[in-house]
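Protocol step 4 of 6: structure prediction from sequence.
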Amino acid sequence: MSTYVHFEDLSNEIFFEIFDYLHALDIFASFTSLNERISSILQLIPLRIVVSNNNTRQQIKFLSSHLTCHDHQVISINIDNIRDNSSVINFLFSRHNFINLQSCVFRSMKPTTKFENVMQQMKNLNRLVVFRIYDNHDNLNESSKYDFTQTILMHQSSCLRSIVLQAPYDYLDVSNYKLLPSNLLSLSLYMRSSSATVSVHSIISILRFCNRIQNLEITISHDSLIANNNVNSTQTPSYNDNDLPRLTQLKHFNFKVFAICDSRLISYILRCMPNLIRFHFNLAIRKAEWTFPGELLDGHVWKQMLELHVPYLSEFDFHMAIFKKIPELDLDIIVNSFECIVETYSDWHMIIDRWRYNYIYGEEFVMLRTLNYEKHKSNINITIPFIFCDSFETRSTITTIDHHRFYSNQEQLKIYLTSRTPLVTW
């Protein structure tokens, strides 16, 4: 004869296991009305708040009503904008004090979001391990960015291990900062450049307080329209080794540049990282009027930089997307120059694609990437113009070109048929 057990009569251990897979809203919606024993278990479990754009204001109010007696149990918060665009950050942090928070992630924010309560709580979070903020639409005002930067980068929690500040900020005040939290291992910053040309001084200033970091990501972007005559200037000041910081503990560096830079800038940065093991580089020249960094398409230049400054490097990948004016590049020369790197790193190959995108002004788009770059997820999308088949050319260090190997992360294909039939040569 079969024995039936009511769900609410399961052992405490099974309930603890179940609750470990659920976030707070699901737990409160499903289990609060079962019985007294379940209610007592809910007083003991860690809670994780996850808010997505599928949630509604009513659900957030329901969550908040149950958090009144449980906010001290919250160890993780991951907040995105909800369906009706209400500011969940304001709502939750003004009503609750998350004193035991270990992980705090803000996926997006509204321009009207107020952070006074958030900042006040952040200063007192002694168990915070991870803090991440993403503001790719630049909704945060400069005052809020300043407060976040100061509060988090100068946080004295010995538990803090990872900081992601993906909100465009100039970091002009970075020289006023003290050393980062003593046990911080990973740092990601989004730096807004004040000009189209990346300032090596700005980068070096940031590196000076990163001497304990093991994983570093720096994104530099310049989005404004070019309206000055210095756009073609890539003058880089001279530094000697004594002027540069040494990040001896840094093992992984991800450098994303959406502005003008040259090999001298990269060389200075790599000189600060003598024990680097993994280097990922992303470059986007967004305007054909910007200076074209031709030396970055020369494999011999890269090989010399890497061997000279980062002798322990075992992983090197890049993605470069460049809008430029004609004359056209010689793709064979570029690919042949990178043959010297093929034997240096395991399973290393690169591909270059080129096509015209503006026939009237004589402009072309060039894209280079390494075989393994698609394994590295990026929070910044690269704008790729339409491919006109009659001008498309490709070369690779692999004899038999297999585009799928290089672009296996691409999931969408759109084809436009015109009344003019192009001359396809491949």
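Step 5 (inspection) to follow. DSSP finds 13 helices and 13 strands in the chain.
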